[in-house]
Amino acid sequence: MEIKFVSGLADVIAAQTEISSVDGKRGVLRYRGYGIEDLADNSSFEEVCYLLLYGKLPTKAQLNGFKNKLKKEQKLSKPVQDFIKGSPKTSNPMDVLRTAVSIIGVYAKKETLVDSSVRLIAKVPIIITAFGRVIQNKKILQPKPKLSIAGNFLYMLNGKVSKLEEEIFDVCLILHAEHGMNASTFSARVAASTRTDIYSAITAAIATLKGPRHGGANEKVLEMVKEIKTEKNVESYIMKRLKKKVRIMGFGHRVYRIKDPRAYILEERSKELARKTKSNFYDILKKVEKIMEREVGHKGIWPNVDFFSGSVYNSLKIPPKLFTPIFALGRVPGWCAHLLEEYQPANRIMRPKAIYIGPKQRKYIPISKR
Ligand code: CMC
Known about the structure:
By secondary structure, the protein is an all-alpha fold. It has two domains: 29-213 and 319-342, Citrate Synthase, domain 1, CATH 1.10.580; 217-315, CATH 1.10.230.10. The chain has 16 helices and three strands. It has helices at 36-42, 45-54, 60-72, 78-86, 93-106, 113-135, 149-158, 163-176, 183-193, 198-209, 217-228, 234-243, 261-277, 281-296, 306-315, 323-342; strands at 20-23, 28-31, 34-35. A three-stranded antiparallel sheet has the order 1-2-3. Helix 7 packs across helix 8 (163-176). It is globular, with a radius of gyration of 22 Å. The two termini are 41 Å apart. The model has no long low-confidence stretch (mean pLDDT 96). Carboxymethyl coenzyme *A is lined by residues 8, 179, 182, 213-215, 217, 247-254, 296, 299, 301, 304-306.
């Protein structure tokens, strides 16, 4: 059999999964068989977490029990709090999140994987908002029992939250919850294939998500929109970059060859919020999209999930530094579901090969003669 190197492992099948399916040609994303449009319109993030972890939608009683479990975990131990408060304010929040999760792992008790998953889903938003408050020199707030994960995130960050803001942010979290074998999920599964613990595997996932080609793109999209300033600058801004072969953030995807289905849903929210806040970000984004369609649409480069999310977060008064951590917050249930799958006894350690392309045999020269 001929062994071939596949750049970026494109189309390489590394696992079998029951968690989600992505049809990149038709632009369809389903979590455990449910279309994301249905989940975004009708479910809550908590319900989606349950679906991903347990494989089915919860009954009312099951969802209430799950929410109660989450609420009990919405606090941080002293070592984690001290670490967050002591981190330099200039730190990358993804570094703070990664290390905080790692510290939780240091103190973790022996428990089921589902219990550890619930712990992580509950604590990650608390870590991000605590550091968000530290950056803003504000007192750290405690979660309110009546609010959802989405509502509490915005409340703990900004000190207040409206019903509309809570609903829109909840949709954002649902849309980020799972996406097949993306780079961070793959990292988590590689780690878990060695049978390391769940906290180590999630730490690896957070480290991978930090990169600008993965989770870091939405922050860059917002930077771009701020640099462009007005609609009339869009054409020259984009063309200058494309000529220099600079990638436009928020475009392109390994799987989708057409517009990401999540981008359609976020686009609606971005438009709604732009109208309310009288911001021109949505109009700028739509012009960027038009020019990109003309220039690179034929290559299968279309808006991805990150293209509209930054403008939505900006309207929700979330600092850009926290955009990638929000991606992580949304993705924790997806990562955990994949870990539950990867830890199944039948799965083998992941160990691909590399084709050696270095020099053939070399004669060794002792250091004194080199
Ligand atoms: N802007 C302009 N051209 C692009 C872009 C872009 N954003 N993305 C890809 N291309 C071009 C690329 O230059 C190449 O052109 P050519 O064939 O002429 O050399 C062609 O499209 C194929 O690119 P690729 O690098 O082979 O594509 P990939 O599948 O390896 O990379 C990607 C996928 C998402 C890393 C890439 O599209 C990218 O860097 N996008 C910008 C970053 C971004 O928005 N990331 C968020 C992804 S969605 C959230 C997530 O799941 O992480």
